[in-house]
Amino acid sequence: MTAAGVAAAVAGALFLTPAQAASNPPSPARPASATASAKELNHRLAVATAGDDLPGATSRSALSGAADTRTGRIDPKIIGGTTTTIAKAPWMAQLWYGDDRGTASTADDIGFFCGGAVVAPTKILTAAHCVKGYNWKAHGTAVVGATTLADADSLHGGTAVGVWRQWNHPSYNSVTIDNDIAVLTLNVPVKVTPIRMTTAADTASYKAGTAAKVYGWGRTTSTTQDLSATLKTADLPIRSDATCAGFYGADFIKGHNVCAGAPASGSDTGTTSSCNGDSGGPLVVGGRIAGVVSWGVRDCVARGAYSVFTKVSTYVGVTYPRLDDTNLSGDHYADLWMRTASGRTGYERDSKGTSLAGRESWGDWSGFDLVLQTDLDRDDYQDLLVRRASDGDVFWKHFVPSRNAWSTKLVGDNWKSRLAVLAPGDVTGDYQPDLVSVDSAGVLWVYPGKGNGTFAARVKAGTGWKSFSWVRGHGDFSGDGIADLVARKKSNGAVYLYKGRGNGTFAAGVKITTWSGSAYNAFAAVGDVNGDSRADFLARTPGGTLYLLRGTGKSGSAAFAARLSLGTTFKQYDLFG
Question: Tell me: the pLDDT tens digits for 100-113?
């Protein structure tokens, strides 16, 4: 298999028999409300731009926040700094929330603004206090590609899109503003250059004195609530935890927060700080997001104060899986695809978190010996990688929304002898989904994805993989935000976790359990089945009971929580993907 062969984008219809070509998945079910009209988005913008609410406020009865018992110094939030352009920060996003509450009166409207950063074509990283308690699908608008702040009359060259899904850290606390991180999933991909988050192992970015930049359209003065009409940036040196805690006391949570900037002067003059309206925007160190604007003192300039950010290295493990959470049904749960051994009928069973919904038929899927779920083009629609049994050709099936149809392209020529083919996600650290295979000699190869269904030249990532009866992987099993692999030894059934390093290589295997053939005889890794941002595993007993092995993000024998039965009727299936 040549690198050029992997990168080929040849129409699959040229290679598929009529019966195989007809085996297309059903069109993904997205209701009309998932894609808001331009008129609706403009209405939301009008409500949002007229509003003066603070994100995360708990004063309105319809919101679900807790009672505010804070010290009085904490307030969710560039005073100082300089203007910049979207060309220098193409990933910056304006997040507008406008809810007219279904009434003609404007008195009860909710309207506010937050910042965010595009970290994948359909994903925006922001703060949980901008997301929790609000219905962004019904009332949110994201604007990208504009230096100037949008208004009710103009996007100023930007593009407005709606929101399909929202996620905030499950332990976000609206009282302490702890675990203040969130991800919005857009209903269509945006054509801007994303920015990556820093890694879980990053400590250099947080050393005191390290140069950092904050970006946003927030308040430029402590004396008015007006946002900046133009994107601004400011240089804020990182401060030590001791310095931050020295000013904020227990309000500053070491490990969860990082603060930056010179101590505020007490007035606009001499102060450089993030402020209201910058909430959710990025603190950038070395070209990666190290922090998310979280909170600061009221009016942002109190003497001695610092800007406080969510520490991204702490949360990348739980946040990154939300960047790779496409699935068959379009929610936060990875679903199961399977095929009957007798009729070769494919079925979808959607995850409900701890159980599976009823099956949905996909018709005839004979002629294939491998089906894998993935999202090679990062459009938030689930793709499939399928291998034809007759010649080993591997095809990429992906949904094309503009045509409301599936397209099939050849991505691997004659992979019949491959011992394993996986779509584990991003193993190279560039936020593009990759392809991994084990050849007949036991060599592990990584094919770096380009984000469009094609791949760069393959890279050798290891040898000796012929000793495994199977290799699986889809997502992050170790909790560091990097895709991993799981493999079982032929000789003794020992199962090993190979942690991804984020550079296309893997750490030495760590034994996590032993699964003999009499215990389980079929396996699948489809991602985060129960929605907790940890990759899970599926294993079937010879008797047909399918178990969910919930990932914990830990290594060794604690890698999976106690197994959970998903049913006893799975003996009839010969393919799981």
Answer: 999 999 999 999 99
